[in-house]
Amino acid sequence: MWGGRFAEGPSAIMREINASIPFDKALWRQDIAASKAHVAMLGAQGIVTAADAQTITEGLDKVAAEYEAGGVPENWDLEDIHMTTESRLAELIGPVAGRLHTARSRNDQVATDFKLWVREAIDEVDAGLEALQKALVAQAGTHAASIMPGFTHLQTAQPVTLGHHLMAYYEMIARDRSRLADNRERMNRSPLGSAALAGTGFPIDREMTAKALGFDGPTANSLDTVSDRDFALDYLMAASQCSLHLSRLAEEFIIWASQPFGFVRMADSLSTGSSIMPQKKNPDAAELVRGHAGRIAGCLTGLMMTMKGLPLAYSKDMQDDKPPVFEAHGLLALSIAAMTGMVAESDFKTDRMRQAAEMGFATATDLADWLVREGDIPFREAHHITGAAVKLAEARGVALDQLPLADLKEIDSRIDERVFKALSVEASVAARKSHGGTAPDQVRARVADARAALGME
Ligand code: ARG
């Protein structure tokens, strides 16, 4: 394809280090689509004849059918998917195939193909995340009033509802989706027609190819266009942040499924056994989601390192852009599917969660708040009084609301029998009805908002 000025062919090592076909064959659909848009434009502009444009278009359809049927024959001499497609086209339709590359370079071609691929990846991830949100919202609706301990420092803090906890992840995923939507909009400009780096002297119509490929219009600067991989980095950043959320959710399931917690029974379909310990049921899927988050972040930092020192415009380093994006996308798509199944199919042990909420003095803040409200005591003093009550309950091995009133009165005479109402875990969550709080009514309201946003009714 470029041998005109060379006396010798490349060495075996050159061929091997240069070949991107082993991975960029994944771009074949995008490569065909971009070539068809390009040749239609060349025909419309009279840069190639209508007859040649038609021959080339039909040839590209045949190549596509071959890819579809049998995959890509990997010939390292052909370097990449672009040369592979063009070479097969030439075999099928003869020398007219050579007109396809008029007013185009592999530099704008690869940027176009890759953008199309990333755009689809965004859409696929977004659909997966929507399904995950629906699973979260369904469980949250069921468990709007199921009480569990809320933690800070993984120490029992205050009672919350399971619905509230699950809806926290709904919010994280909503931010992930908005990040992806934002990336999609920013990237949706067509590189095609930037040619090698400087544009072209042929009278091309970049609006036409942009429109044909679903872009909002052409990019503005040819040098920037062929050396821009921000769209890939944006995707990897969004994927990394999303994978952090999935990893944190996975971690919660791992903790909740452990025997000392016993908050959840994971679906058999997403667990594995042990070859030696018959009683074991291991949360491997959740652990792998947690592990994959590290690999996805590695893909992001990898591509950042590839790009950081490159002068304008294209350099071959940029061929290394695809493996991290492909890898991260595969890992992310699987992680989303695994977490969706885990959320939808887990059996939450609400009795056990409630019991745990009743232990650990989760309503201590409610006692302090009661003293402030009913006794007009400054919060700091109320905190101190409550600390004494917790100390006594701990010494006796009982819950706060099991302390006799007489003992509470000894700690502070302003306490009376009405306090017991505030000390139950139900009263505790019901009281937290500030906007976005854990009260079941608040959770139900947020679930209703989410259902409407997801079109679930
Ligand atoms: N396979 C190359 C890549 O993925 C295509 C662009 C090649 N351009 C070039 N000037 N050699 O980046």
From TrEMBL:
<dbReference type="Pfam" id="PF14698">
    <property type="entry name" value="ASL_C2"/>
</dbReference>
<dbReference type="InterPro" id="IPR009049">
    <property type="entry name" value="Argininosuccinate_lyase"/>
</dbReference>
<keyword id="KW-0456">Lyase</keyword>
<dbReference type="InterPro" id="IPR024083">
    <property type="entry name" value="Fumarase/histidase_N"/>
</dbReference>
<comment type="similarity">
    <text>Belongs to the lyase 1 family. Argininosuccinate lyase subfamily.</text>
</comment>
<dbReference type="InterPro" id="IPR020557">
    <property type="entry name" value="Fumarate_lyase_CS"/>
</dbReference>
<comment type="pathway">
    <text>Amino-acid biosynthesis; L-arginine biosynthesis; L-arginine from L-ornithine and carbamoyl phosphate: step 3/3.</text>
</comment>
<dbReference type="InterPro" id="IPR022761">
    <property type="entry name" value="Fumarate_lyase_N"/>
</dbReference>
<keyword id="KW-0055">Arginine biosynthesis</keyword>
<keyword id="KW-0963">Cytoplasm</keyword>
<keyword id="KW-0028">Amino-acid biosynthesis</keyword>
<protein>
    <recommendedName>
        <fullName>Argininosuccinate lyase</fullName>
        <ecNumber>4.3.2.1</ecNumber>
    </recommendedName>
</protein>
<dbReference type="GO" id="GO:0005829">
    <property type="term" value="C:cytosol"/>
</dbReference>
<dbReference type="InterPro" id="IPR029419">
    <property type="entry name" value="Arg_succ_lyase_C"/>
</dbReference>
<dbReference type="GO" id="GO:0042450">
    <property type="term" value="P:L-arginine biosynthetic process via ornithine"/>
</dbReference>
<dbReference type="GO" id="GO:0004056">
    <property type="term" value="F:argininosuccinate lyase activity"/>
</dbReference>
<dbReference type="InterPro" id="IPR008948">
    <property type="entry name" value="L-Aspartase-like"/>
</dbReference>
<feature type="domain" description="Fumarate lyase N-terminal">
    <location>
        <begin position="4"/>
        <end position="298"/>
    </location>
</feature>
<dbReference type="Pfam" id="PF00206">
    <property type="entry name" value="Lyase_1"/>
</dbReference>
<dbReference type="InterPro" id="IPR000362">
    <property type="entry name" value="Fumarate_lyase_fam"/>
</dbReference>
<feature type="domain" description="Argininosuccinate lyase C-terminal">
    <location>
        <begin position="361"/>
        <end position="430"/>
    </location>
</feature>
